[in-house]
């Protein structure tokens, strides 16, 4: 099957639609969404089209956002070495209510941010024969490129390709990284790890715990870097850049470019997270909501597809991922009381990630599976 022509072949065709065959053809091409764009598609393949029930459910696009009523908080980290009570209070409010905030004066130089975004674009735009060598769905592979980790589980595919790099806790051999982004990936990893420890310290204090509490729980021990690439989409209203989801980690630090498209689900509906020059977006992950016993909120978010592109972003997921550890995670004992019993049962990271990956981005939180039923 010619995947390049798949987008047009189903429009107006009476031939039966074999979704699995098209999935396999798309996967086998190793070209991702970028490959479809390069082939000149003008219509979306059915693989990417949202089901009618999703479109009819009202979970649609920018017309329903309520940005005028609500803004994602911006927190200045410039004073974390002095009196940080105001910063801790700001982090607490954001983590307990919105689950998202942006940080400025975070210590990572602007040129490092710019080089990381350039590297994300650079990798996804290298020759296909070079990029294809990294294409893989092997679960344990540390550096892999692909499109839609849940391709065979999801109701529709997202308009996005990703280079996924496990940077810790075991140090990654730089030679495993593509040469086009090798040096900056290692540097950005070092810089964002330092920022992660600062943020976990603030979040620990926001919970009324010692500054190093979350770090002693290995929340900052491992991290992965994901280079996302969202090509310009011919029919953005029919698909998504990334389906609504929450993150399966403790904390995410996101670097986004100037195009925008990231939205957070709030009590006011979908709210834009506008790009702020030099800022980084921080959001609470599912595992931090679990161990904080629902104090902190892991909020659903999504990325819109767009006629304009490519949009690139660099996400850092703080989690041990599939690194072998005997540690189990449940609500922090110091936060529990007779009036505040545990909401979740304990789980290993392996079991949590396995459930999340098998479920895929289906619009439902993985946390509900680990709730204690009363």
TrEMBL record:
UniProt cofactor(s): Fe cation
Pfam families named in the record: 2OG-FeII_Oxy, DIOX_N
Domain of life where this protein originates: Eukaryota
Annotated InterPro entries: DIOX_N, IPNS-like_FE2OG_OXY, IPNS-like_sf, Oxoglu/Fe-dep_dioxygenase_dom
Keyword Translocase found: no
Family: Belongs to the iron/ascorbate-dependent oxidoreductase family.
Keywords: Iron, Metal-binding, Oxidoreductase
Domain spans labelled Fe2OG dioxygenase: 221-320
Entry keyword annotation includes Oxidoreductase: yes
Stated name of the protein: Fe2OG dioxygenase domain-containing protein
GO MF terms, alphabetically ordered: dioxygenase activity; metal ion binding
